[in-house]
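User: Quick sanity check before I run a bigger batch. Here is a single chain. Can you write out its predicted 3D structure?
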Amino acid sequence: MRALQAFDAAREKGNQTILTYAGRDIKRFFSIDATVYETGALPSKVKEMLGLATSAVLRCDDCITHHLKRAFEEGISDEEIVEVFSIAMVVGGSITIPHIRRALLSWDRMRREVLYKEILAEIAAISDIPLEDRLKAICTLLDERIDTYDWTGFYIVDSPGMLRLGPYVGEPTDHTFIPFGKGICGQAAATGKNFVIDDVSAQSNYLSCSFKVRSEIVVPVFRDGELWGELDIDSHTPAAFDDLDEWLLGEIAKII
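Assistant: Done. Predicted structure follows.
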């Protein structure tokens, strides 16, 4: 949870600065704040939900982020977090919606980070099976575990300047060979760079595989400093990929 780790670090630094200047009353308040969410008559999980709902009503984004992270660590479910924010919206009114929107985006990212780390662990566990089987298993795993991955496959360097379709999961494609520089895959091969395309229809150099495809991500795979191939994902959802997907596929590329 890199973004939240940065938030925690900044929050801790700020708190230490406050305590450097603080008198008795501020220090007492900080002491109470550190202990009031511990399990007592109410379990800490319930207290974090109370803190989160109150923070949303007060529209304190830093407070929301802190309690959202703690709620996640306490194992609060999606259904529970929705009810927490439903109460906050009823009490605080529609003015809380922008804060709840940002909070749920953060919640979704936390869930995805956990999922993506689980996926990487599962891929690492099959490192001893034959390469072709491993590539197919990776495609199947990504397809099954991530809803927005609608076509998942590998293109492998077949000869200088040419990619060949490898194992994949999804609808059949006519693009079994792609020259370097042609389409998104070819451009990624030619440049050795990741390509994250939010809207494929806006691309002039694009090879259409299906009218359903709305966005695409391609991450090159290198071996001993040389381009070996690439991992290509299509989605039927516009702008389906972000830096977290780029990180996941980049990590997969390292362990193939």
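Strands lie at 151-159, 162-169, 177-179, 195-197, 215-223, 226-235.

User: Great, the batch can go ahead then.
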